[in-house]
Amino acid sequence: MATIGKKKSLDKALDSDKDKSKKEVSKKLYSVNGFSFTAIIEKGVNGWYVGQLLEYPEVISQGKSIKELQVNLLDALKLIMEVNREETKLNYIGKKTIKRKILA
What we know:
There is one protein chain. By secondary structure, this protein is of the alpha+beta class. The chain is elongated. Helix content is about 40%, strand content about 25%. It has a 4-stranded antiparallel β-sheet, with helices on one face. The chain has 2 helices and 4 strands.
């Protein structure tokens, strides 16, 4: 429940930020295999776009264009998922478990 409240607060803050003197901030929705992700994007003073996934805040990247940023964010998401998968496997070494794929 706390996460939903934080997300709503962040959405409200981003949506209400109309001051053009501040950094340009936008939200963009991406969809991969039926899952949607929201990127929070800022355009830096150097012209590069920096983004972070709202749903996975540890996924951060940059790109010269929003399209390049999107590709880089999805690559970063894949890398983080691979690392998490390997770390989780280590936690279950020697334990009797059942694995099932869950499809959306």
